[in-house]
Amino acid sequence: MSQVVLSARNRANTGSGEARRIRRSGRIPAVLYGRTGKSVNIDLDAQEFSKRVRNISESTIVKLDVEGKSYDAFVKDTQHSITAGSILHVDFYEVESGVALRARVSIHLQGTPIGVREGGVLESPLHEIEVECLPKDLPERIDLDISGLKVNQSLHVRDINLGEGVRLVSNGDQVVALVKFAREETAAEAAEEAAASASGSAPAAAPATGAKA
Prior knowledge:
- The protein has about 210 residues and is α+β, with helices and mostly antiparallel strands.
- The chain is built from four helices and 13 strands.
- The protein has a six-stranded mixed barrel with strand order 1-3-2-6-5-4.
- β5 and β6 form a beta hairpin.
């Protein structure tokens, strides 16, 4: 996938009134946060941003062209209008070439496990991991083939091949995917449930009234 390039403009004015004016003009107010703590106020074309970042993840590095000055950055946060669904604001975080960074990378499971075809149930408790690497080595996502997973087998974070230059930060013992047999109700459990249901269905007899001693 080729790198996403976004054109942006510097904006001198801030505040809610200015932000509304920018949105009315078809643009989105945004902030680019630098590694040293400095930030740059910018705005972007709303249609271009929505179209070009539709399929990117949090670990995708985009290129920001701010009036001729280029930055590599993550899209760290996108704020949406609850009512209209439109984008209200975007936060970018700059990355520096040649300097290691930490990022969370999403995991995408591929294939149907053998164990599922044999009647098992797939569980996938983990959907992303944290890694450390240079920006050029950062994977956009991790595609993990689980088609060979049998019943009572599991894949852990340590089993993922991250490639050269990428160091795992997350706990390697975390389970990414496992296949288990669906729990079957035993005859004893079924009998207990039936008895409990029967005892609870009939109302208790009301005490007799008006009896003399």
